[in-house]
Amino acid sequence: MILRRKPAPTLTLWCAAGPAQLRALAEVGWSSFPQADVRDTELEAFRLREDAVRLARGELVSAQDEGSVVVFDVALDVLDWPGVRAEGERLRIPKGRRLTKSLVGDINEEAQYQRGVAQDEVSAVQAAFGWPVAEAWREMVTAAGWLRRGWMLSGAYVELHPPVDAVRVTREWTSEMIYHPGVLVIGSDGGERRLAVDLRDDDPPVRLIEPSSTGWEDTVVQAPSVRVLAHRLETGDFGFLT
Which pLDDT band, with edges at 50, 70 and 90, does 5 fall under? Predict the structure, then answer.
């Protein structure tokens, strides 16, 4: 008989990260929380995800144009360490080797929020393709702290394009042959599948386009409108239909 040791209990924590912190995490392979300088001695972490979202989406977006929510697991005894300060559901944990050793698995970015884009950036889409965008899409990408990318509660990963990227991606994707007249690619699943709308429709459904698609008729509706998509992204219950 082989006896298996039960895994030690862990604590899931979230923190908010600006663009510089996100780059630093990527540079160390998402395996530790690097210190920017000698004054960077504490990690501000939260036991409730919504607290990290509030900080990333509000303060960080306002100050740095974007803010990410980062999730990680640590050994449960972190709460008993000397130097760890608890302020309600907020924890201040000393950075360093001990924190790195306590990590269970990798650190991951769960979501990124960005500052709303300028109205003229949205209007540039009509200049590029000849049709105005759906008002709901304009409202989504100009909103303060709109979701740029992230994981849903369903396990789906969604990446959304700001107008400049939407124009670029759409042009690149249609450079050889246009199977989908009026298309605007507004996002993806993080891979080759595209989220797109038909600009010829005033209030278009959001469709998933597979790489093998040869026309609108073989795409799958993911939401009846951009407004519904935005709501489902906000609640986190969006999942891809195939």
Answer: low
Query: In CATH, what is the architecture of 116-235?
Result: 3-Layer(aba) Sandwich (3.40)
**Mean confidence (pLDDT) of the chain:** 95
Please state, in angstroms and rounded to a whole number, the distance separating the CA atoms of residues 192 and 214: 15
Q: Shortest CA distance to 215 belongs to which of 190, 178, 186, 165?
A: 178
pTM of the model: 0.92
Question: Would you list the domain boundaries of the chain?
Answer: 10-112, 116-235
The pLDDT tens digits for 143-198 are: 999 999 999 999 999 999 999 999 999 999 998 878 999 999 999 999 999 999 99
Q: Return the closest-CA partner of residue 134 out of 166, 165, 158, 105.
A: 166
Tell whether domain 10-112 is in CATH 3.20.170: yes
The 10 Å Cβ neighbour count of residue 180 is 22
- What pLDDT is recorded for position 178? 84
Q: How far is CA 69 from CA 88, 151, 187, in A?
A: 19, 11, 20
Tokens read off for 126: 């009509």
Within the chain, strands assigned E span 10-17, 42-46, 66-75, 85-87, 90-94, 108-114, 146-151, 157-160, 183-188, 194-198, 206-209, 220-223
Same fold, 10-112 and 116-235: no
